[in-house]
Amino acid sequence: MYDFRITAADKATLYRDLVSAAEGLMAGEPDAIANMANVAALIWESLPDLNWAGFYRNVDGELVLGPFQGRPACIRIPFGQGVCGAAAESLQVQRVADVNAFPGHIACDSASASELVVPIVRDGKLIAVLDLDSPAPGRFTEEDEAGCVALCGLLAKLL
Ligand code: SME
Predict the structure, then answer these.
(1) How far apart (Å, rounded) are the C-alpha atoms in residues 105 and 66?
(2) If you measure from the C-alpha of residue 82 to the centroid of ligand 1, how many angstroms do you get, rounded to a whole number?
(3) How far does residue 92's CA lie from ligand 1's centre (Å)?
(4) Within 13 Å and on the Cβ side, how many CA atoms surround 61?
(5) Closest CA to ligand 1's atom 5
(6) How far apart are the CA of 56 and the centre of ligand 1, in A?
(7) pLDDT single digits (tens) 67-87
């Protein structure tokens, strides 16, 4: 049994502990789906105010639903569509304070108000995106972005 309980006073520490726990969970395991599943569960357990946390994988130039926590979600997202598709196409982080103001946002869960999508890129090629949704508007700060970018840097090496 794994019991990672991450409680930190500040976000920088929280994400440092999260990245370190993710590294521990993935150590020695080469299966990307299994690793994404455990990291989605770790994020879900560790970060407050989320209603969805998980991955979309790049499968032949299309985003396909990967391991996640939260409500069932749309399965396939073309590059360029919605927040995830924008991240996949541009290889840039999308930090959206109000998803309803984002052109083409795909509402998988009407409870979602803000979203953070981080591309996972190795050797210039998109492997997957990490997608976090929150029911709170403006939930994701620059510190959340920096922490998730660090986590995705690790994932890019280990997935
Ligand atoms: N809202 C996302 C779709 C994925 S769900 O949030 C899980 C988007 O616009 O790309």
Answers:
(1) 19
(2) 6
(3) 15
(4) 0
(5) 108
(6) 9
(7) 999 999 999 999 999 999 999
